[in-house]
From TrEMBL:
<dbReference type="InterPro" id="IPR008709">
    <property type="entry name" value="Neurochondrin"/>
</dbReference>
<dbReference type="InterPro" id="IPR016024">
    <property type="entry name" value="ARM-type_fold"/>
</dbReference>
<comment type="similarity">
    <text>Belongs to the neurochondrin family.</text>
</comment>
<dbReference type="Pfam" id="PF05536">
    <property type="entry name" value="Neurochondrin"/>
</dbReference>
<protein>
    <recommendedName>
        <fullName>Neurochondrin</fullName>
    </recommendedName>
</protein>
Length: 729
């Protein structure tokens, strides 16, 4: 068998590669070809390699390239099997006069022929060839050697066929194909364009696994693509806009890549473009915004101008798409624009180290207001049949981001939309699984076939909570929310989310958004307690909420790192207890006693006596746990002290319970041990309020305070009401 015969036999693989182009009539004629039948019989009966080579050559001559159908291809496989190709791929000795890669080329050609059958492409005998096939992609040799080029093409044919099977991407990643493809692309040898195409497919199918197995190689490709993008002056830069989102890592993007990407985008978006040129650039910018926030935009004048340009372009696109009724909306582009608007909202509300100057912020708020008006206009047209569409979810998300920061503008339009928002949030809450899937679909719609940056919350309520917190302070919006049943929905949502933080659940894996959502719910309920106390008394959902707060606080105050949530729960529970004081659950039950003991713990541990150098007297100071978060905590603490004070006369058992906890005695002891000048007037007022009510409510409390030098301490701090109360019998 000569080298030329081997090359001819290799044409069988090419016949298989072009099988998709064949016509049914040719296939039927081929299956009735008596010559082919005879040669297939010879192939089946071959006793050694030479006979198999000869039979393969005969089959090749009987079958014209491109005229082989799947059935005949399978019959050839049945005649050859995997043993012969396996030997060809692993043999190290070629016939005299043949290059050493010719046998391997024939083996790969046969596999390429077989892999055009999806069932064979998933065969273990093909899958275990993935490592050796991957090595062919980067093998060195004469780039003009036709046999080598053919072998590379066949290797890509095999790997692409495997990638098209259900578990193929996983097998390719495990077999080192991702690294081989990266190296093949970076080497820019023959077939490097095929390497990039297959890489794109694998990243789209299994992004996380690809990065886990080949992060250094993928980052090298990203660097190359970013540099090409920054330098490109032709239409290739628009093609790169579509590719680059797939190559952004799930972790940190290298700074040099960010510089190149920003520079390339600045040149593109600063030019006059058609929509097909501009849209991929906006989507790439949105992907970067999700992955990196504003960190990829340089500080200084150029960066602020670029960011302002991005947000302005995004707002224009949103208005053009949503203001005209009946216009077909390019949902992927508009959703990407939402992401850029969200970046604009964040930068406009940032007080320190913002990229934007004040005049730019004013201008952007104005254009974003117009774009949000278009979003509201669109949502008002959404019927029940569209509520589960990802684009509606994306539109609610950007509206929620806007309302979290701005509720004074567009107030009339927002109030008009509130009934829809409550119904929409309720629908998605009741179908939570579908809502989570919607979040993933939005990510896909907006950016790329992969999950972008931080995971978007999967429920509409969490998106709307900050805005609703602001709106419940205002009479008009609050009345609409109450009328539409928002408080009841929020109570159910709070209880559901609370379950995720209860014992038996691993809170370490919960996203921060769960705890932030619980805190925001508490703020909304606090607003309702203050502005709509009648609602708290009459709606049964708040009784269930109160029961949950009472049973949960004792464990919560003991948990490290959750003090802010505990403050919210304690303060809300104390305020609600004033309104629900006649409830049987608050009449000294174990749950109510446990709750108030935990509330006292929260209120009493905020301040300590701290010695100061060069002074004989200590000063009142924040305890270490409270010190770092006091800016967020102090309003809740003062409100909690006020609420506890209000509960004492309403719950006769509370004063004796406080006395048993030794809080009034320890509070007086603390005040007597520090300099009165170190205690701010508002602290004095808060402490006096609690001590006076306890003293008035219970004789034993008064006696305990007197024993703790209460009258003298009251005099030092000019607590006239406490001093008078303790002077009475």
């Amino acid at each position: 068998m000569s080298c030329c015969d081997l090359a001819a036999a290799g044409q069988l693989g090419k016949a298989g590669i072009m099988a998709s182009d064949c016509e049914p009539a040719l296939n039927q004629a081929e299956s009735r070809n008596p010559t082919l039948e005879r040669y297939l019989g010879a192939l089946r009966e071959a006793k050694n390699d030479s006979e198999q080579f000869a039979a393969l050559l005969l089959v090749t001559k009987a079958v014209k390239a491109g005229d082989i159908d799947a059935k005949t291809r399978r019959r050839i496989f049945d005649a050859v099997g995997f043993t012969f190709p396996n030997r060809l791929l692993t043999t190290k000795e070629a016939p005299d006069g043949c290059p050493d890669h010719v046998l391997r080329a024939l083996g790969v050609a046969l596999l390429a022929c077989f892999c055009s059958d999806p069932e064979l492409a998933a065969h273990p005998q093909v899958l275990n060839k993935i490592p050796i096939l991957s090595t062919f992609l980067t093998a060195r040799g004469d780039p003009d050697d036709a046999a080598r080029r053919s072998m590379v093409d066949d290797a890509y044919q095999c790997l692409t066929a495997v990638a098209g099977t259900p578990r193929g991407p996983r097998h390719l990643i495990a077999g080192g194909t991702v690294s081989a493809l990266c190296q093949a692309y970076l080497g820019h040898g023959y077939g490097f364009d095929q390497a990039l195409a297959l890489l794109v497919g694998l990243l789209a199918a299994a992004e996380t696994q690809c990065w886990k197995e080949a992060e250094p190689d993928l980052l090298a490709v990203l660097r190359g693509l970013s540099e090409d993008f920054q330098k490109a002056e032709d239409a290739s830069k628009f093609e790169l806009c579509q590719l680059l989102p797939l190559f952004l890592p799930p972790t940190t993007v290298p700074p040099e890549c960010l510089r190149d990407l920003q520079a390339g985008l600045a040149r593109i978006l600063g030019s006059k473009l058609s929509s097909w040129q501009r849209n991929p650039a906006l989507k790439l910018a949105a992907r970067l915004a999700h992955a990196c926030g504003s960190d990829w935009i340089p500080a200084g004048n150029s960066g602020s101008k670029f960011l302002a340009l991005l947000v302005n372009l995004a707002c224009v696109e949103v208005r053009l798409a949503l203001e005209e009724t009946g216009t077909e909306v390019k949902e992927d582009v508009v959703t990407a624009c939402y992401a850029l608007m969200e970046l604009g909202i964040q930068e406009c509300t940032r007080c320190e180290q913002s990229l934007l100057k004040e005049p730019q912020k004013v201008q952007l708020v104005s254009v974003m207001k117009e774009a949000i008006g278009a979003v509201i206009h669109y949502l008002l047209q959404v019927g029940p049949e569209k509520q589960k569409e990802p684009f509606v979810f994306a539109s609610v998300r950007i509206l929620g981001a806007w309302l979290a920061e701005e509720t004074s503008s567009l107030r009339k339009e927002v109030c008009q939309l509130l009934p829809f928002l409550v119904r929409y949030a309720k629908t998605l809450y009741e179908e939570a699984e579908e809502a989570n899937d919607l979040s993933q679909q939005v990510a896909t719609l907006a950016i790329s076939p992969t999950t972008p940056g931080p995971t978007w919350p999967g429920d509409a309520l969490r998106l709307l909570l900050p805005g609703w917190c602001h709106l419940t302070v205002e009479d008009g919006p609050r009345e609409i929310l109450i009328k539409e049943g928002a408080p009841s929905l929020l109570c159910k949502y709070f209880l559901q989310q609370w379950e995720l933080t209860s014992p038996g659940h691993d809170t370490s894996v919960l996203p921060d958004s769960v705890e932030i959502g619980l805190q925001t719910c508490c703020h909304i309920f606090l607003n309702l307690v203050v502005t709509a106390p009648g609602l708290i008394k009459r709606d049964a959902c708040f009784t269930s909420l109160m029961n949950t707060l009472m049973t949960s606080l004792p464990a919560l105050v003991q948990q490290q790192g959750r003090l802010l949530l505990a403050a919210n729960v304690a303060t809300l529970g104390l305020l609600m207890a004033r309104l629900l004081s006649t409830s049987p659950a608050l009449q000294g039950t174990p749950a109510s006693r446990g709750f108030f003991a935990a509330a006292i713990l929260f209120l009493s541990q905020s301040h300590v006596a701290r010695a100061t150098p060069g002074s004989d007297q200590a000063v009142l100071a924040l305890s270490s746990d409270y010190e770092g978060i006091w800016a967020d905590l102090q309003e809740l603490w003062f409100l909690g002290m006020q609420a506890f004070t209000g509960c004492v006369p309403l719950l006769p058992w509370l004063a004796p319970a406080a006395l048993r906890s030794r809080w009034p005695q320890e509070l007086l002891q603390l005040l007597s041990s520090v300099s009165p000048n170190s205690v701010k007037p508002e602290m004095v007022a808060a402490y006096q309020g609690v001590l006076v009510e306890l003293a008035r409510a219970n004789r034993l409390c008064r006696e305990a305070m007197r024993l703790q030098a209460g009258e003298e301490t009251a005099s030092h701090y000019r607590m006239a009401a406490l001093e008078q109360c303790l002077s009475e019998p």
